[in-house]
Amino acid sequence: VFRNKLTFFAAAKISSSFPAPEFPEIAFAGRSNVGKSSLLNALTRQWGVVRTSDKPGLTQTINFFTLGSKLHLVDLPGYGFAYAKEEVKEEWEALVKEYVSTRVGLKRVCLLVDTKWGMKPRDHEIIDLMERSQTKYQIVLTKTDLVFPIDVARRAMQIEESLKAKKSAVQPVMMISSKTGAGIRSLRTALANIVRF
Ligand code: GTP
Ligand code: MG
User: Any transmembrane segments, and where (predicted)?
Assistant: First the structure.
């Protein structure tokens, strides 16, 4: 399915403007600047459809992309240290929370975590929410190129340990670098298996 053409489909600032859930969806969540938009590019090998930036807080709406009119890939705005007003950040966060806990057709949330920094309180908040709404999610460690391999492995083990009791967490933790391409194929295969195209 990831060979299909990626096209922008819709952007939503409020849940009433979410498109009708006609396709299965895979969403990408995580703190600001963790590499969500870059991962979408790397997975689809299509650069330029999803915008990325050095400045945290680029993605300010929930952006829906279609992959060959079969699947929606959903780029969520990051939570955390965006250069934005506090009220605006709270609005995005509420929107993301509403999306992950109520969206029909949502098959999987990839929760991206920066390998160097690990999980933060807001990641745990989202996890608790997904546990309550029984939304299937998996942790994807990003930017592994910036950390020694031993530390990547250590981080993955630490997170797997902390997820043991969680019911909606899909194991194992995957590790990727959108920059070098490490781990991208495995993640692509894992995600394609969810929708089985
Ligand atoms: P928001 O939209 O602000 O929430 O950010 P985002 O999570 O979409 O992050 P984005 O993909 O825009 O990437 C943020 C920055 O991290 C950019 O400067 C990217 O080039 C960089 N980046 C993303 N992935 C990697 C990676 O695997 N390795 C390295 N070294 N840098 C990366
Ligand atoms: Mg982004």
Answer: none
Tell me the CA–centroid distance for residue 57 and ligand 2, in Å.
7
pLDDT tens sequence across 21-41:
989 999 999 998 899 989 999
Q: Is the CB of 179 under 6 A from ligand 1?
A: yes
> Distance, CA 58 to ligand 1 centroid (Å)?
10
Distance between CA 18 and CA 72 in Å, rounded? 12
Q: Which of 34, 37, 38 to mutate to test the pocket of ligand 1 (most atoms within 8 A of CB)?
A: 38
Tell me if 41 CB under 6 Å of ligand 1: no
Residues 6 or more apart whose Cβ sits within 8 Å of residue 20: none
Determine the distance from the C-alpha atom of residue 145 to the mean position of all C-alpha atoms in its chain, rounded to a whole number: 19
Annotated domain spans of the chain: 6-195
The tokens for 25 are 């969806």
Omega before residue 56 within 30° of 0, cis: no
SS3 175: strand
ipTM: 0.98
Nearest CA, atom 28, ligand 1: 143
Looking at the domain 6-195, which fold is it? Rossmann fold (3.40.50)
